[in-house]
Amino acid sequence: MLRGMLTLLRARLFHTPKNPFTEAGALEAFSDGALVIDGERIVAVGDAATLRGRYQSAALAGDPESYLLPGFVDTHVHYPQVRVIGAMGLTLLDWLRERTLPEEARLADLAYARALAARFVRALLRNGTTTALVFGSHFPGAQEALFEEAERVGLRLTSGLVLADRLLRPELHTDPETAYRTCETLISRWHGRSRLRYALTPRFALSCSDALLEVTGALLRAYPDVWFQTHLNESRDEIRTVAELFPWAEDYLATYERFGLVGARSVFAHNVHVREGELRRLAAAGSAVAHCPSSNMFIGSGLFSLRRHLACGVRVALGSDVGGGTGFSLLKEGLMAYQGQMLQPDGVPLGPAHLLYLATRAGALALGQEALGDLSPGRQADLVLLKPPPGSTLEEVLRHSPSPEASLGALFTLAREESVRDVWVAGVSLRAHLAGG
Ligand code: GUN
Ligand code: FE
After folding, report:
1. Residue 189, helix vs strand vs coil
2. N or C end of the chain: smaller count of CB under 10 Å?
3. Residue 154 CA to its chain's centroid (Å)
4. Which residues are in the Aminodeoxyfutalosine deaminase/Imidazolonepropionase-like composite domain (predicted)?
5. DSSP state letters, 292-335
6. Which of 103, 231, 321 to mutate to test the pocket of ligand 1 (most atoms within 8 A of CB)?
C-alpha cells in the first residue's frame, strides 16, 4: 500500500478503543465493517456501506466473511525456546536446567541461531502477533540474528541480550564489564532502527550477581529510552532461592529496585506469588506485568491474581512465554487467562472484550506504543485477518453466533494458527512470510 493510495479493507471488525476493565461499551464491533488505510495508518473505521460511500476512490480489499482484529502484542516470549515447547513433567528450575538451558546453549552456533530466528519470527506472524517484547539469547551473535530477521521481515520487536553471571551453565554466563560493553554495542546498532528497540534483559535475579544488576541499572541511566524486562515472582522455589541469594532484600521486587530497574519502561513477567507491598510499588513505578497464563499452568507455577493487580492499579498485558508457554497464540493465552480466572474464588470475570484488550491495546500500552493496539483513526495499521478453515468447528460455531461478542468468544476459544490468513504491520501485508518450509 503506497502512501497517498487509500485501501478499504472489508471484514467483520473488532477492537477495544476503550479499557473494558474501567469503561462500559469498550468493545467496538462492525459485523459488515471496513477499515480505510492510508500508507502506514488507519484513517477510518466503521460500517462498510458508509465508508464505501465516503472513500469511493479507495482500492477494495479484504473479505466480508473474515474477521479483522488489531495485531496481537506478545509482551513476553523467548526466542531460543521454540523447540522446547511441550517439555512436560518439570517445574521451573528443573525445566530450565534439564530442557531449556541446554537448548539455549545451542545458540552459540550462529547458523543454528539464524535458522531459529527465522522460525521464531515466522511463528509470531503465523499466530497474528505483530509486536513482541522478546527475551533474546545469551550470545551476541544470536541476538543480532534475531534483530536482522525481524528487520528483514518488518516485525515490531523489542528485545535484548539475556544477561546472567551465575547458576545457569558456564557457557551462558557473562561478566559485568563484558555485559556493559556488549549491550552498548547492541543498543547503538539496533535501538530505534527499523521497527526495533532494545530492552535490557537480565534473566532473573537468581542468575544475576549484584554487580551485574548494577551495570544493568547504569545502562538504563545511560540510555534512558531503552526498555527493561525480566522475570519476577514466578515459582515458589525460585522465590525462596532469590530470598537466600539477596538476604538484604525485603522481597523479590527489591532485588531489582535497589539497582534502579523498576520504572515506567519495565516489564516483569509472571508475578504469580506477589506480596501486597510489591504490587503497590509496581503501580507507583508505572511498571507493567506480563501475565503468561499457559506458562503458569504448564510449568505449574500457580494461578495469577488479576484481581489484586487491578485493585492496586498495576498495568497487565498478555505474554505467551514460549517455551514455558504452550504456543505463540495470544488467542489461546486469552482463553487460558479466562480459565485461570474462572478457577479462582476471587477471579475476575472476563469476557471477550477483556481478552481482546489484554491481547492488543493493553500490550501496546505496556510497551509504551500508544500508536498501536486498536483500530482507531491515526493508529498504525497493524492487523490480523482471521478466517476459519472450511469445515472446521470454528466455522460452524461462528455461523451460529448470536452476537459479535459471541463470535469474538468463539475466536478466542477455537481460532489458532490455521485461521490466521493475513497479517499487516504498518499497512504492509506480511502474508508472504507466513508460509515457508
Ligand atoms: N525464569 C528465568 N528464565 C526463565 C525462562 O526461560 N522461562 C520462564 N518461564 N521463567 C524463567
Ligand atoms: Fe519467561
Report:
1. helix
2. C
3. 16
4. 33-55
5. -HHHHHHTT-----HHHHHHHT-EEEE---TTTSS-S-HHHHHH
6. 231
Please, what is the average pLDDT of the chain? 97
* Cα distance between residue 187 and residue 179, in whole Å: 12
How remote is the CA of residue 144 from the centroid of ligand 2, in Å? Answer: 20
Whether the per-residue pLDDT at 2 is higher than 70: the answer is no
Residues lining ligand 1, Cβ inside 6 A: 78, 92, 96, 100, 203-204, 231, 234, 295, 321, 324
Name the CA radius of gyration of the chain, rounded: 21
C-alpha cell at 418: 490455521
Q: How far is the CA of 68 from the centre of ligand 2 (A)?
A: 29
Look up residue 24 and give its amino acid.
A
Ligand 1 centroid to residue 231 C-alpha, Å: 7
Residue 323 CA: nearest ligand 1 atom is 7
The angle subtended at Cα 296 by Cα 291 and Cα 299, nearest 5°, is 150
- Ligand nearest to the backbone CA of 85: 1
Show me where the domains of the chain are located.
Answer: 6-70+373-433, 72-366
The CATH code belonging to domain 72-366 is 3.20.20.140
Q: Is a pLDDT exceeding 60 seen at residue 160?
A: yes
> Does the ipTM exceed 0.95?
yes
- Listing DSSP states for 396-425 in one string gives HHHHT-SSHHHHHHHHHHH--GGGEEEEEE
Write the residue with the smallest CA distance to atom 11 of ligand 1.
231
Please report the atom of ligand 1 found closest to the CA of residue 295.
9
Nearest 10 degrees: Cα torsion 350, 352, 353, 355? 70
Give domain 6-70+373-433's CATH architecture: Roll (2.30)
Could you give the percent of the chain with pLDDT greater than 70? 99
**What average pLDDT does the segment 361-368 reach?**
98
Cell numbers placing 52: 464505501
91, 92, 233: residue to mutate for ligand 1 pocket, most atoms within 8 A of CB: 92
Please report which helix (H) or strand (E) contains residue 337, including its range: helix 330-342
